[in-house]
Design a protein that fits this description.
about 375 residues; alpha/beta; three-stranded mixed sheet; elongated; eleven-stranded mixed sheet
Length: about 375
Amino acid sequence: MPNPLTSLTPLLETLAKNIDVLPAAGKAVEDYLHPDPEELEDILINREVEEVNAFAETPEPSLSDLYRPVSPLFRKDKPFYRFFIDGCIQTYFLGTGIEAGRTFPIELAQIGAAVVERDRNGNLKVLAREHKVLLLIPKGEKGVSDGVWQLLERCKPADGVIEVLNVDVRHTLTGDRDDLDLRNKAGAKARHRMHELEIELIKKTDTLRDEDNWLILDGAVKLDEFVESPYLIGVAKSFRKNPQFYFGRRRRGRQEDRRDVTAILAGLPHMHRTAAFSAYEGKVAFWYVRLREQKELDYPLMGVVKVELPRPDGTPVEAELADLISRTLVAERNVTPYGRDRRWHCHLYPIFIAEQAIKSAFYSKEVLLGAIRWPHC
């Protein structure tokens, strides 16, 4: 049976013929990103939300009333979430390219996104799925010349499954930083492209969502722009731990009107949510929900998810709606047993299924390595 990634061969041959390549030992080495890439994403995507000084809920809560109970509301009692979107990524370091005295990494990634639909009986099916293989190379002053890049463009297969992407460009996951390592930029570019696939899948559900058929997106509701589609939330299993919350009049030297997120979440009881806070001038309302009791976990911030709700018109979210979103979310919590995944404590079952649907479409490591051939190296 022929290798399904043989269309990579012309691209690799073009590189090997036009630049010097030092291949990675064993053809390719998988990159593992540390620290948690999802938490880094939340830091980068929501870099503007370092200080929070307004609620986004009506009636407006108070500092003495930050937590609301959200007992689980199960699907059989109230069908609510119908669509679930997640994305996955694997990146591999293929080698080092050398051209005109410049050295740069050559990386390969396979990315995917899937939207899972659940019917009224609880049955899950994959509604749509996207899968891409990315050849990640810097272009220009830090990478290949324009001439080599044009040759690579001509070699791309017509089916669109394999894409050649310039990693040395700015986007949400790099911000304005130019000092990032090129391998980190490659990983960020791959994750950015993965999120673009997720946003494309949201559009496939636009005519199917309504007040009784909501969508959960794994992660933030902002990439380069806000996701402004109605009847969806973003749920982050990992999130930044450094926002500061200021309420009331701020005075120099006074601390009673300032709280950090760790203090707020350490006091968040099981099956409760925080008040909804305002971000981006009210265009996003966000809050935190505790899915699991602290006694089940290693430290107080485990078992908590961050919920983001787009509010394009800047209006606060009604407390009853935030309660409903949170109660039905608590009912989704059970999924993987302890130890199978480091994020087990805040998994949502249908999101986990979406993740498995994506991974099942990925090429195996054996297929991928079998396609990595560096002629004349």
